[in-house]
Amino acid sequence: MGDKKDVVILGAGIGGLAAGYFLSRTGKYKVTILEKEPVIGGLCGSFKHDGFTLDYGAHKIYSVIPGILDEIVNLMGDRLLKLPKRNRLFLNRHLVDYPLRLGNLSQTLGPAMFFRLGMGYAFELFKGALNRNDAGSYEEYIIRRFGRPAYKLVFEPLADKVWGNPSSLHLEMARTRVPSSGGLEVILKLLGIKKETAETSAESFYYPRNGFGDFPNALKEQIERMDGKIITNAKVTEIRKEDEKISSVICSIHGEHRSFPCDLLISSIPIEELGRLVFRDEDSEFNHAVGSLQFRHLILIYIFVNRPLILSDQWIFFPERQFIFSRIFEQKQMNPDLCPPDKTAICCDFTCSEDSWQWQTSNEELTKKCVEGLVEGGFIKAEEVIGHLVKRRKNFYPRYDLQYEDKMQVVINKLKQVENLLLTGRIGMYNYNNADHCMDMGRFISEKLVVGISCHQIIEEMEKHVRDYRIVD
Ligand SMILES: Cc1cc2nc3c(=O)[nH]c(=O)nc-3n(C[C@H](O)[C@H](O)[C@H](O)COP(=O)(O)OP(=O)(O)OC[C@H]3O[C@@H](n4cnc5c(N)ncnc54)[C@H](O)[C@@H]3O)c2cc1C
């Protein structure tokens, strides 16, 4: 017990908790997790409101990373439900399959548009046979796989909503978010001749029956069972260094300052905030690089409706610009027991930048636009709305611009000079990822540490490892 190393973890989202869980399991680390909010879970948490248990948008448990799904199933056992996945895309007032299939699109879009899409695919297939160079941007990657007409119809407006101006998006954003093989295989899938695989589309997924937040809760229980501590309301105010090693973390907890000595620090808090705390603005090149990494803010608008159920899908994507949201999600589709029997809630999610009209607009005005969109799409009637709730979260979606790799190189080179510092999580590692990837990051860190690999090397290896993550719908 006495010879365990003290590890302090910043942030009790799934990233920080996963690191704490895997490190506790080694029996070599005494884990303390510091969370600034009164509750744990971050964006993977759930909360209660007027008899509803709600998640922060549509969250499913799914993974194609070897062993990770088994880890989660072992952790949660019968606290999980297994659900068939039902999600589609709303286009031209119709619901179409997602990932796209040509047969389905032809019924929705009519013969002329269907012909244009088909010609677009054929043209790109022909061009692809002549041109074997790699795509240079998000736009090129998608056009080469699906053709320009499909890019213009679906991918460009959806990407514009989620990340803003897709022509300045790095190719990595497409690889992460639109997992797809190239050329002929895409065409065969579009024609419905070849099936999607587990790597490109989930047929079913797991969901914690008490709300997604039960996943972080289960991690917390295990960490505490292994003598770890999770301290909420703990805002990090200072990180002390001796030479190139972090010696302690100072926190303000209910207005009192407490010091946490550490042998190892793992951060899942925003990478820029960590940079400021560790280097206190001492390196202008680093400050510039970390400060210019781009993020998008997240807005979630919950509309409460006086009807038992609205959708037959769990979530639906909305590429068209007349809808301000990019996706809607009905919590009751995950587990009806999470909501009152006679009412339901639709969560509309969208992202934006700090200076966008969306971020500057009042909650009431945004809610009005969401209700109008839901009415226009034929999902609800205005008079059925009985309430709303808005949640805003700053800087949650990493946005890979065309220079992001160079910036990350500067950031990583600086951070790895600290002998006992590691990064994890979505905003902690600046990695556009899902909860299963955060679990994998925690496992990766712990497996490397127990065989004596230095933090310096782990950061380097992890930076490469996480670039292979793919988000599967
Ligand atoms: C709409 C939406 C849908 C999604 N769908 C899915 C899905 O279907 N499946 C899936 O697996 N994933 C999904 N994700 C992704 C998933 O939510 C993230 O991968 C995950 O939440 C990232 O966890 P994290 O710990 O890195 O970050 P966070 O959840 O942001 O946690 C970071 C924690 O650090 C704390 N913190 C910040 N600053 C400080 C500080 N200074 N001191 C102490 N603590 C601090 C925060 O309060 C927070 O608790 C979705 C995300 C969104 C937004």
UniProtKB/TrEMBL annotation:
Pfam families reported in the protein's UniProt record: Amino_oxidase
GO cellular component terms given for this protein: cytosol
Membrane spanning residue stretches: 7-24
Keyword annotations from UniProtKB, A to Z: Membrane, Transmembrane, Transmembrane helix
Record's signal peptide: none
Domain Amine oxidase: 14-376
Protein name (database record): Amine oxidase
Gene Ontology terms for molecular function: flavin adenine dinucleotide binding; oxidoreductase activity; UDP-galactopyranose mutase activity
Domain of life: Bacteria
